[in-house]
Amino acid sequence: MTSVTATPCTSFFTRHEFAIRRLHSLTGIVPLGAYMVVHLTTNASLLNGTATFQRAVYAIHSLGALLPIVEWGLIFAPLLFHAIIGVWIARTGRSNTSHYTYANNRRYKWQRITGLIAFVYLMMHVWHLHGWVHFSHWVELGERYGFAQFRPYNAASTMAAAMASWFWKAFYLIGMWACVYHFANGLWTAGITWGAWISAAAQQRASKVCTAIGLVLLVVGTSAWWGAISTDPVAAKLIEDQMYEANLKAGVVPPSVEKRTQPDPVLGEAAPAVAGEAEASVAPASE
Ligand code: HEM
Ligand code: HEM
Asked: Is 107 contained in some domain?
């Protein structure tokens, strides 16, 4: 005889809600929060000059073939997990407040709003500068349709050129601020999730520390943004191409097929086809 006392129809999420929420919280701090701190600091190094930023990007890209594995394992996969669960939580309005002695509903609401802004921002940001996947002709397509604009050997110049319009400038500023708020406030709510600060007094102390972290990150992130929008792409490209040629001669970077064969995002279709001729076409005004 078949039983009619069926088990309640529960979704996968509902059955594993506790573990999923903990994993969601953890991924927000490590690796995502940690990555954002390093990422914004690296980008802010542009304020020290094109060469400083370029050296940092070469150091990251020296991972070579390991880079996509590190990117997918430590950034994209946790980001997609956190984003999908986060959008689900924000849209269904599932409340965590039963775990909290949550006095501040506004902060809780803004955590969700900034999460949704971060979602739009990060999906477009990665698409715009990096591209989500790489396959042959990707760079060519990106050049034609305005995505995957970043070139590691022309770091500051391609970033600045990609952010040249007022739309992208405003988009990056709002998106980055939303991410910073989301992370700093998220550190505080995560402390509640994990039971690190339970009493009202402990929560108040933690709130001050998280606000301070948020303010420092706000300055670092805004410096990164300012570095990107105040860079002159053509002047930066000159320095980067000299560094590329020197590194190529020293054998510390592999020759870039893409650099030789694809139109240049800074100079456009008129770019010389072969690296090394670039300097000639952007000769300094003094010559
Ligand atoms: C990509 C889009 C993102 C979405 C849609 C999103 C969404 C959310 C939501 C809705 C929450 C609240 C969860 C709850 O109510 O229990 C949350 C928490 C959190 N998020 Fe995100 N988030 C995103 C990206 C990020 C990023 C990039 C970081 C790090 C820089 C981050 C760090 C955190 C932290 C630390 C928490 C607190 C976890 C807790 O309270 O236990 N999030 N996120
Ligand atoms: C002023 C703000 C920002 C600027 C100028 C900026 C710049 C860049 C650049 C140039 C890249 C391409 C790197 C490459 O392809 O090697 C990149 C990639 C990326 N950015 Fe940002 N970024 C900013 C804010 C953020 C924020 C707030 C987050 C949040 C976590 C973020 C997450 C990412 C991710 C996930 C990637 C792709 C991963 C990778 O390329 O390794 N960015 N960003």
From this structure: yes
